[in-house]
Design goal:
Blueprint lengths: L1 E5 L9 H12 L15 E5 L5 H13 L27 E10 L4 E11 H13 L8 H11 L5 E9 L11 H12 L29
Parallel strand pairs: 1-2
Antiparallel strand pairs: 3-4, 3-5
Length: 215
Amino acid sequence: MLSGLMLFNKAVSTNIGKIFLRMVKKHFTKQHHYYKILNIHTIKLSYSCMPNMERIIKQSNAKILDDTPHTNQGGCNCSKPEDCLLDGQCLTSCIVYNAEVSTAEKEYIYHGSTKNTWKERYGGHKTSFTHRQYEHATTLSKLIWKLKDNNTPYTIKWSIAALARPYKCGTRHCDLCLTEKTIIARSKHSGLINSRSEIVSKCRHRKKFLLNEVT
């Protein structure tokens, strides 16, 4: 469920909610490729939901006083650094990354994220590219197996799209997931292969903080 959060003000006489839904209905018609997730039935409007001043100050102070490292920027432990798939940055963690798949006829792009180092995440991708039972692990692995089945030569170029903070227990949002979703939503690449459902998916990094995960 998507939420449009608005701050209530008695001085505003305009029916903001009605105008907002009217704009959604106008710009996201049934023919639009985002209609399934952006329509008047999936968007929830609520008022007076903005954080108060006390909460804003506490969040700001916590961010400033928190001196723990959130990202490991750079580093490489490849046996041959010149062959590093991420240009000597394979040990970078907490990132949103790009995988650009090129064939003779078309170029595709995939956006992913990882809290661990990119090299650890690449190990998962490599497994899904090699073993057929993991073909449906990601939309990227589905594409790779499709190209393999058609005997289509391809190359993959990896790059870092953005650095982000990992989920912190007690917070309501995950900067890493939100950054990935924002990049996917704003992408204008004609060969984008990410699934639209990824934009509204739940955060994967909060699960380990739930009580049912405590052993």
